[in-house]
Design goal:
globular, alpha+beta, four-stranded mixed beta sheet, about 45% helix, two-stranded antiparallel ribbon, about 20% strand, Beta Polymerase, domain 2
């Protein structure tokens, strides 16, 4: 995995873990964990990495998420505190350096009520002794199937063909 991406994931996971945010990395980061990494496409100028995180959509966890984001992007803290939490609508997006982060309360195949079941199935990886929660490969494939985009179909093929699991390969 690209060193810059690895550092970004590690730093984000460290902040999320510090505030005990229940979350899982999903999308391209998870694909890269389980199979051959693929670069994100159609990113805005200056953004090299797109990182998707599914979080447990409860008020308590959302407050923890706001605190964790405030730790890594302090200038957002006041704006984040003004958000009225709705588990069906509270998608958070922000950029930091050359990263774009999406915090998702639900996925295409799973709504917020499915989070705990999927969380039990997750893989816990490590980058420099920092725990990184990854959606399970089976749940990732289910979500990719539900999304149905051409890149998701390619990801499924990649996941089925290349079982490589891990960040340091």
């Amino acid at each position: 995995m690209d060193k810059t991406l690895s550092e970004g994931i590690k730093n984000l996971a460290q902040a999320l873990n510090l505030y005990k945010v229940k979350h899982m990395f999903v999308g391209g980061v998870a694909v890269g964990f389980y199979a051959k990494p693929r670069p994100s496409t159609n990113l805005p100028k200056g953004i090299d990495y797109d990182v998707d995180i599914w979080y447990l959509a409860t008020t308590e966890n959302f407050v923890s998420l706001i605190n964790a984001i405030g730790k890594i992007r302090p200038e957002l803290k006041m704006d984040l505190n003004k958000i009225v939490f709705d588990p069906l609508k509270t998608f958070l997006k922000f950029d930091l350096d050359n990263f774009h982060f999406d915090f998702l309360p639900e996925l295409k195949a799973f709504d917020y009520k499915d989070f705990n079941k999927c969380y039990e199935n997750r893989e816990v990886a490590q980058i420099d002794k920092i725990e990184v929660s990854m959606i399970s490969i089976d749940d990732l494939i289910l979500n990719k199937k539900a999304t149905g985009r051409s890149k998701d179909k390619e990801d499924i093929e990649n996941l089925n063909k290349n079982s490589l699991k891990g960040f340091s390969r």
